[in-house]
Amino acid sequence: QVQLVESGGGLVQPGGSLRLSCVASGSIFRTNVMDWYRQAPGKQRELVAASTSGGGDTYYADSVKGRFTISRDNTKNTVYLQMNDLTPADTAVYYCHLKFTGSWRVNSNENYWGQGTQVTVSS
């Protein structure tokens, strides 16, 4: 079993920055993908950024390219999402997700989710 705990959400003004963190615990000693999804009110959950434990296979949604950076510290089983130049369109609940595959492109029947952290961008 895997547990994911997110932190770092909050209220920020447009143009501001936030850094989300997600710590994984449990049986994660296999190749995995840790990624961030978000869901805004009335919208579907969307993949924002993804990173594999082996490195070198990273994904960003077009809407966040150049503004968001995903990184991970495998020694701490932690993935981060640095979000810069935030806009109101980034307002959503952000969810950490982990799956046991070698690429974000590949689905898995082993998926784990965090509880979500609210990000609100407003003046």
Structural write-up:
The protein is mainly β and 123 residues long. It is 0% helix and 51% strand. It contains no helices and eleven strands. Strands 2, 4, 5, 6, 9, 10 and 11 form a seven-stranded mixed sheet that branches. Strands 1-3-8-7 form a four-stranded antiparallel sheet, with no helix packed on it. The protein is globular. The termini are far apart. The mean pLDDT is 94.
Q: Roughly how many Å apart are the termini?
A: 40 Å
**Mean model confidence by pLDDT:** 94
Contiguous helical run count: 0
Work out the radius of gyration. 14 Å
Strand content: over 45%
Helix fraction, binned, reads under 10%
Number of strands: 11
Describe the secondary structure blueprint for this structure.
Layout: E1 2-7, E2 10-12, E3 18-26, E4 33-39, E5 46-52, E6 58-60, E7 68-73, E8 78-83, E9 92-99, E10 111-113, E11 117-121
In short:
The chain is mainly β and 123 residues long.
Protein traits:
11 strands; mainly beta; single chain; 4-stranded antiparallel β-sheet; 123 residues
